[in-house]
Design goal:
The protein contains 12 helices and 14 strands. By secondary structure, the protein is an alpha/beta fold. It has 3 domains: 64 residues, Arc Repressor Mutant, subunit A (Orthogonal Bundle); 134 residues, Rossmann fold (3-Layer(aba) Sandwich); 136 residues, Rossmann fold, CATH 3.40.50. Strands 4-3-5-6-7-13 form a 6-stranded parallel β-sheet, sandwiched between helices.
């Protein structure tokens, strides 16, 4: 069971996210927090002390506790004291302009700034040579550590040039969204095999037996969700139908944005035995699938049920609202930064760490129960 102060700390962290706290916003008083959570003042103070140690709040005697977990252009604390600048952290991503990536980046930046570092971002747009060059430049520029989600990462083997470059850099490296078999680096990721398994098992429990999947094959998350798909069908003694399996690559998605529409149309057009449900790699591809399903003359969920992944902001606006998994975007960024900061401590022992999320499943209206 969690310690009492940790329960309060975690609850406050969630409030900071849900209520969009900004730099300088004042927290409730200790007595208000005691009333809210039903714990002693000692427990509340322990939680606040932990948040202050993490650089998320600042407590000022006689004034109260203030949120400082997000970057501030003045680079000053609430008390007016300028924070010590410890250096730069590099972040390399294959795409950062939209979807889940701005929130991951925000989680990283909020955390490292609160601890005296600044973020340097390099976006490689699925360009492998640019990715290598970006890493080289950041290392040459003297970044203290790197956070990276490699492009086409399911194809990275132990002797890959990128891994050789990172191993030789002599700085801490944390990977995100990559459940790598390479053991040299710490990682913050999702249990994608379990998510794939749970998505299909949910559909099986709703009476579906003809279940399709559209996934991205050259990223590890896609491969892992596909493995979960296969395992769930095998455990249910259901034969895998290749006609219900479609995949695309990272590069194809970047160059041609309608992969979800194209592959869904291929799966459904002229099929004498179409699937009754489709599990999509992410909500963006599922959104394209919605259009293809309707253009092929089917209804959601009456004819075809849909499950996505990520809980993208448009998921609730679809008709019907999309059943999906909630990607821990901001929390993933914060944890990647926490681990990197810990590895920068002089007393740190060089032992890679893992933080693996199990995202909550959000049931909405895009799945039909065939057993009713």
């Amino acid at each position: 069971m969690s310690l009492k102060y940790k329960i309060v700390k975690d609850a406050l962290l969630k409030i900071f996210d849900d209520d969009n706290y900004r730099n300088g916003d004042q927290l409730p008083t200790e007595f208000e927090l005691m009333d809210k959570y039903g714990f002693s003042r000692y427990t509340i103070r322990q939680a606040l002390e932990e948040l202050e140690k993490d650089g998320i709040i600042e407590r000022i005697h006689g004034r109260g506790s203030f949120f400082i977990g997000k970057p501030d252009v003045s680079r000053e604390s609430i008390s007016g004291e300028r924070k010590e600048q410890k250096g730069f952290i590099g972040m390399v991503n294959f795409y950062s302009h939209d979807y889940i990536y701005p929130d991951i980046m925000r989680g990283i930046e909020d955390t490292i700034y609160a601890n005296g570092y600044s973020l340097v971002l390099s976006n490689c747009n699925q360009d492998y040579s640019k990715e290598l060059e970006s890493v080289r430049r950041l290392i040459d520029q003297g970044v203290k550590g790197l956070i990276i989600e490699p492009s086409r990462n399911s194809q990275i083997t132990d002797n890959h040039p990128l891994l050789s470059l990172l191993r030789g850099a002599g700085i801490p490296v944390v990977t995100t969204n990559w459940n790598s078999k390479v053991k040299n680096f710490s990682m913050v990721t999702i249990d994608d095999v379990k998510c794939g398994y749970d998505a299909i098992n949910y559909l099986l429990e709703k009476g579906h037996r003809k279940i399709g999947i559209i996934y991205k094959y050259d990223v590890q998350a896609g491969r892992d969700r596909f493995d979960g798909y296969i395992k769930a069908l095998n455990d249910a003694s259901i034969e895998v139908n290749d006609q219900y399996i479609k995949h695309y690559s990272d590069l194809e998605e970047f160059q041609y944005s309608e992969q979800g529409y194209k592959l869904t149309s291929q799966m459904l057009s002229g099929s004498p035995d179409p699937p009754t449900a489709i599990f999509y790699f992410n909500d963006n591809v599922a959104l394209q699938g919605y259009r293809a399903i309707k253009d092929c003359g089917f209804r959601i969920p009456e004819d075809i049920s849909v499950v996505g992944f990520d809980d993208y902001k448009s998921s609730t606006l679809l008709s019907p609202p999309l059943t999906t998994f909630e990607h821990p975007k901001y929390a993933m960024g914060r944890w990647a930064a926490y681990i990197l900061l810990e590895e920068l401590e002089p007393s740190h022992r060089p032992m890679p760490k893992q933080m693996i999320f199990e995202p909550p499943f959000i049931e909405r209206e895009s799945v039909r129960d065939l057993l009713i």
